[in-house]
């Protein structure tokens, strides 16, 4: 594990630059789970994620000669911005290699911090391989996103801050990709209070560290696919794996559907925008993947808030349908004046609101003289949708639902 003294030193070094983010009590989750739940809001950190902690600490520990050479990093986005803003603070050159599918938000944010951005590879591991070769070619100092003691020590400062606020925590939930965050947090926790239970949460679509933990041997994945791009790491590395096996008590997985639910939950209940990786811990709680027996106080790390706007829109739309606040129906009408008015009157009687309508008279699936109406409705829950169906049937409309 990382020496506690190094984590305290990191705290002192980074305190001049990073934000001490809120550690807030969640009344919603606490009531739901009958346990006091506290959220560590790193989505409110500078650059929108915890990664700045480790990046700043790593660069601060470089020699003056190394700083003059410049730095390079490979990242899906959050580490990129952490390295870029830290390099800018020290006035040194930064090159960031990002996977080609990195959300535009993260690419633009990194460029805006004066870093040179190179898009390369289908995932982090391919970008990482390219960055290593580039570092050798141009004599740059490689700042690893997680396989680096100074990085892990910087991330471990999160644990110190949480304990400063709530000293008697029983459990900490931490998102896991490469393992730098949980390595730092677990190292600090186990040296301060070995009884604190550390639980890692990974995405089902990026299972390398999860499978490695449970088999006690490194198992790499052939590919990764998850909306939680911040923890979409294909391979497990030995350094973080060893710390995780030593210090982490439990390791669980959540799927993309559960992560999306958690993103929407945080947006609605807490008015917080949290990316998929950051919401994975909330997904584990909402879907009761964690045994909270005998746990009175639980800390939950929301690791970042840099979610792509298009992805957020998809999550919101799907969430509205799943929570019965939207429904989409196809209705076949006789194509004559007044037919659509009769349908809209029925919908009005059901007190539903039309938000989208499409009128098709030319589909080859229709009989001559018919029209297909596709309507998206705003509704107020499952009972309201049952009322819509009931009234449409009573009025003689034949319809199907689009899920």
TrEMBL record:
Catalysed conversion reaction: L-serine = pyruvate + NH4(+)
Keywords from the UniProt entry: Amino-acid biosynthesis, Branched-chain amino acid biosynthesis, Isoleucine biosynthesis, Lyase, Pyridoxal phosphate
Record pathway: Amino-acid biosynthesis; L-isoleucine biosynthesis; 2-oxobutanoate from L-threonine: step 1/1
First-level EC class: lyase
EC number: 4.3.1.19
GO molecular function, one term: threonine deaminase activity
Classification via PANTHER family: L-THREONINE DEHYDRATASE CATABOLIC TDCB (PTHR48078:SF6), THREONINE DEHYDRATASE, MITOCHONDRIAL-RELATED (PTHR48078)
Protein name from the UniProt record: Threonine ammonia-lyase
């Amino acid at each position: 594990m990382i020496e506690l003294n190094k984590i305290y030193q990191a705290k002192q070094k980074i305190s001049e630059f990073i934000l001490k983010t809120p550690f807030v009590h969640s009344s919603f989750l606490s009531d739901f789970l009958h346990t006091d739940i506290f959220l560590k809001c790193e989505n409110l950190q500078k650059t929108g994620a915890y990664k700045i902690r480790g990046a700043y600490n790593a660069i601060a520990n470089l020699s003056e000669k190394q700083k003059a050479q410049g730095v390079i990093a490979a990242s899906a986005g959050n580490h990129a911005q952490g390295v870029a803003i830290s390099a800018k603070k020290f006035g040194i050159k930064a090159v960031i290699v990002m996977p080609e599918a990195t959300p535009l938000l993260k690419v633009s944010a990194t460029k805006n911090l004066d870093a040179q951005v190179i898009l390369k590879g289908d995932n982090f591991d391919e970008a990482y391989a390219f960055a290593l070769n580039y570092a050798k070619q141009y004599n740059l100092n490689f700042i690893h996103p997680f396989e680096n003691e100074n990085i892990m020590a910087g991330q471990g400062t999160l644990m110190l801050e949480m304990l400063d606020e709530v000293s008697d925590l029983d459990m900490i939930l931490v998102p896991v990709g490469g393992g730098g965050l949980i390595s730092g947090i677990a190292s600090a926790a186990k040296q301060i209070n070995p009884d604190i239970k550390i639980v890692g949460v990974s995405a089902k679509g990026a299972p390398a560290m999860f499978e490695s933990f449970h088999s006690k041997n490194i198992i790499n994945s052939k590919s990764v696919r998850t909306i939680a791009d911040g923890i979409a790491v294909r391979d497990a590395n030995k350094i973080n794996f060893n710390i995780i096996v030593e210090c982490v008590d439990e390791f669980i997985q959540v799927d993309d559907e559960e992560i999306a639910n958690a993103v929407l939950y945080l947006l609605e209940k807490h008015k917080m925008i949290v990316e998929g990786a950051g919401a994975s811990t909330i997904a584990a709680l909402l879907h009761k993947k964690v045994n909270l027996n005998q746990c009175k106080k639980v800390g939950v790390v929301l690791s970042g808030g840099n979610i792509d706007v298009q992805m957020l829109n998809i999550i919101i739309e799907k969430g509205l349908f799943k929570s019965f606040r939207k429904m989409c129906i196809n209705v076949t009408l006789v194509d004559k004046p007044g037919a659509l008015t009769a349908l809209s009157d029925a919908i009005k009687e059901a007190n539903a609101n039309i938000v989208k309508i499409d009128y098709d008279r030319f589909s080859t699936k229709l009989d001559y003289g018919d029209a297909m109406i596709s309507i998206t409705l705003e509704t107020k829950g499952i009972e309201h949708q049952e009322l819509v169906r009931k009234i449409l049937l009573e009025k003689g409309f034949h319809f199907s639902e689009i899920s």
